[in-house]
Every structure is written in C-alpha cells, then in structure tokens.
Amino acid sequence: MGTHLSTQELTEWRADTARTFNDSCKLGTATPGGGTGPEADDDTITYGDEIDCGFVFGGGGSQSGDGAQLDMNAATIRFPLSSDVVGVDRVQVTKRDGTALSPVEYYSIVGKPKKGKSAIVLDCQVLKGGSGA
Amino acid sequence: MSATVPTAYTSAELQAFMHQHIGSIATILGWTVDGGSYDEPEITALLWCGVTDIADETDMTKLRALARVAVLQQAAVYLSTRYDTTADGASLKRSQMQAAVSTMLAKAETDALPYDPNYALGQDEIDYTDDPYTRTAVDEANEAAE
Question: For B91-107, how does the pLDDT look when each residue is reduced to its tens digit (9 = 90+)?
Fold first, then answer.
C-alpha cells in the first residue's frame, strides 16, 4: 500500500486552489421548451447564485478545410469541488478579478464536467447574444 | 491616527501582535486569536524570556522580538506541507509561501539574537594551569643577572 495524501493535505490543496478563483459565475440549467423543429430555440435557462470560479480564456483554434485558422472562443472555467454542476448547461461569467462584467458573458459547456483532485473543470465555448438561451 | 508604544503586554495583546505580524499568512492558515492559534507561540516566547507570567516581562523589545520568532517558527512548520501542486489545469507554486516565511523567520532570528541566552557574549579571566608564558624563577634569575 502506497503513501497517500492525508486528508489535511488535500483540504489545504483544495483551499489554496479555491483561493485562486478570482472570478464569479452563475451556473445555469436548461428547461426544454416546446419547440420541436430543427431550429427550436425556446429553452428556458435558470441561473443559480453567484459563486467563485476561475476563468481562463482558452482561445482554442481549429483549421478549416481551406487552411484558415478559426477562433473557437474556447474557455476553461474551474469551480470549487463543492459546486453542484449536475445538469448544468450554461455558465454566466459575471465578474473577472472582482470587476463586474457589463454585459455578462455566456458560455455553453463542451463535453462533461471533469471532477479532479482540486477542482471541477468545465470546458466551455462562448455564446453570442444576450440571454445565452 | 497615533500609535501607543506598549510598556506592558497582556496575553491577548501579545497574541494580537503576533496575528498582525504574520499578516495574510494568518488568513491562509486559518489562524485566529480567539481560536487559540497563538497560545503555543506565546508560551514559547515567555519561556525564552525566562518568565511564566507575561506581566513579569518588562522588556517590550525583547518580548516582541522573541514572539516574532516563535510565531514564524510555528507558521513555517504549518506551511511545510504546502508543496507545489499541479492538477486540473492549474499549477500552484505554494512552496513560495514556505520560502517567504523561512526568509522572514531567518530575519526575525537574527533580530532576536541579542535576547538568546545561548548567544550571550561576555568576558572573563582565564587561568591557564599550563601557561607556557608564565614567568618562572629561572626567568627572574636570568633577568637579575643581566
């Protein structure tokens, strides 16, 4: 049996990680609307309370068929391990480094949340428009 | 604003001084005066001062210097498990906190050296039993013959 990190070490690690979350976010869950067509866009998004988060603009790119570089507007947002991200569909970034964003930014979530040792990581992509719905 | 230079310390006042002295390190470690975080450093400082009642220590410079060392020693121990970590897309150079406290501790220890009884300097007469330069009767006789 190997030597494992103690509960105390993990607690300190997670607390130190959470201390680097200088941004604020709201997590949103979608309630499907009644639309059924291919362009149905009537979901209702309900956002929770503002919580601490760590935002990093990934700026990921992808090459198109003709060789042009496309900005994917990717972002990575980290949350404390205690955050409830089950069923979350959207992230609203409300503050960066304590400064309120106006307008706030909306992101969709790409893939599943990654729950690691010290944080929950959401890979995101910026959404155009105001509501994010 | 005006500061009052202390001429005596209560336990609570000395602990408040130590809490203020380590600044945001106290926040990181979750130390509070009310929570008893500074009880042990205070005991250590008083033992170094050679008193068991804080009211008996009248040298405020000495008390503060030794309290700084005691509290920084404890902080260095508690921060020793804050090694660098990398996980979940973040690298934390947590050992910088340990390094900073160690630097502050070394400075505090240097400042407190005059109050360390093990470092006290003094002078005393030394009586050599086998001193090769001691004048003997032969020396006296030779000198008289010259």
Answer: 999 999 999 999 999 99
Give the residue with greater pLDDT, A74 vs B28.
B28
Long-range CB contacts for residues B19-23, cutoff 8 Å, separation at least 24: B21/B67, B21/B68, B21/B71, B22/B71, B22/B72, B22/B75, B22/B101
- Indicate the fold that domain A7-32+41-126 takes in CATH: Thrombin, subunit H (2.40.10)
Confidence grade of residue A71 (pLDDT, cut at 50, 70, 90): low
Indicate whether B85 belongs to any domain.
yes
Enumerate residues 12 to 41 of chain B having a beta carbon within 8 A of any beta carbon in chain A: 28
Average pLDDT rounded to a whole number, residues A13-32: 92
Contact (CB<8Å) A12/B88: no
Cβ-defined contact of B92 to A20 (cutoff 8 Å): yes
- What's the domain count of chain B? 1
Identify whether B138 is part of a domain. Answer: no
- Tell me the residue type at B35: G
The residue range of the domain holding B101 is 11-116
3-state secondary structure of A92: strand
**Chain length of chain A:** 133
Q: Is residue B102 part of a domain?
A: yes
Q: Give the single-character DSSP code of A3.
A: P
With beta carbons under 8 A apart, name residues in chain B contacting A12.
81-82
Q: Which two tokens stand for residue B69?
A: 């060392």
pLDDT, mean of residues B79-93: 92
